Amino acid sequence: MSKVPVIVMSGFLGSGKTTLLFRLLQEAAHFNLLPAVLMNELGKQDVDGHLLQEASPNLNLAKLLDGCICCSKKSDISDSIKQLLLRKPDVILIELTGVANPEEIVDALTEPALIPLVKLHKVVTVLDAENVRDYNSIFATDRELVHTLRRQIEVADLLILNKIDLITDKKQKSIVKAIRKYNERSLLLPTAHSKFDLNLLLGALQPRQDQHNQSTTFNRNLLFQKHLKSAKESTTPVASYSRIQSISIPIESELIMNQRFIERFLIDWGSKLIRAKGYLSIGVKYERLNMQFAGKRINWQPTSFQGNPYLVLIGLDLDVSALEEDWKRRIIELDVHTL
Ligand SMILES: Nc1nc2c(ncn2[C@@H]2O[C@H](COP(=O)(O)OP(=O)(O)OP(=O)(O)O)[C@@H](O)[C@H]2O)c(=O)[nH]1
């Protein structure tokens, strides 16, 4: 049996991985490929998973929630991949959390149970052009995180410099120069909304019925070798996230709130928040909206999500109890004003 290729998508929180995943899923049919998806989210609530299922109800999807894939037991990853393989996909797309080191999943794919079943095709790292240069100073005190973000660049087969619509050409040039210090070999594509020729990722893949045994990677073998070497050399692997926490806040569906209320809360906590997302019920008509807060920008989109509203907040060194207290206080005030 031929091995199923795996494409790993890495990149910091909010850089545009899910946007790329959506494009890959949309385009897979044009390449005559049946995809499967393994999603890893930091929180218990799986916002992106729901968006995917909404867009593609029959999607072969497995989820590893509430933790980084690097910390999930290898058996969990292995079980999820085996579950996906039952429906005989042509390619498995793995979206890592923003704080995962892609080497960890490469390691998991080399578990004995998976070696005969899957092979790494490419590691793609998506970078947020508007914010990527600031990470070193923002996270200066978190060496593990800085290390992880650097490894995301260093081990990528393909680097997507996303969100260039938000920066000047001059800034783009200087970012490219900075990225090249960590990875001068792999293809680096400036994009907006991860729009690039997906032939680069899917073109070499074949539907399984008529697969040839061909090599399709940029530096896959190198990555495997490099990783196996470092795994042998190092007995104390660096954890992929440390000071980053995620909190999920359930929201009563009867509560009447507007977008401004949420935005004010996010702006007030903005210096501590890296990312926030959720499903909210807005206004007296309880309109359901998906909210995405990334790189200090907030986007709202209508959604068909009908479950209980909630907000997921991901932050660095968050004072969780202060944040929860503040949220409760605001909710009480909101309730009083809407009585
Ligand atoms: N302006 C702009 N916004 C973008 C671009 N790509 C993605 N976005 C927006 O940025 C936000 C985050 O994008 P996602 O694709 O969810 O990012 P992600 O990397 O999956 O985020 P996590 O799941 O938190 O790791 C969403 O609101 C996107 O619509 C881009 O090129 N330009």
Automatic annotation (TrEMBL):
Residue ranges annotated for the CobW/HypB/UreG nucleotide-binding domain, each copy included = 5-185
Tell me its family. Belongs to the SIMIBI class G3E GTPase family. ZNG1 subfamily.
TM region positions: none
Q: Which residues form the CobW C-terminal domain?
A: 258-328
Q: Does the keyword Transcription apply?
A: no
Q: Name one Pfam family in it.
A: cobW
Entry superkingdom = Bacteria
Keywords assigned by UniProt?
A: Chaperone, Hydrolase, Nucleotide-binding
- SUPFAM superfamilies recorded for this chain? Hypothetical protein YjiA, C-terminal domain, P-loop containing nucleoside triphosphate hydrolases
Q: Protein name, please?
A: GTP-binding protein
The reply to whether Chaperone figures as a keyword in the UniProt entry is: yes
Q: Which reaction does it catalyse?
A: GTP + H2O = GDP + phosphate + H(+)
- UniProt cross-references to InterPro entries, sorted A to Z: CobW-likC_sf, CobW-like_C, CobW/HypB/UreG_nucleotide-bd, P-loop_NTPase, Zinc-reg_GTPase_activator
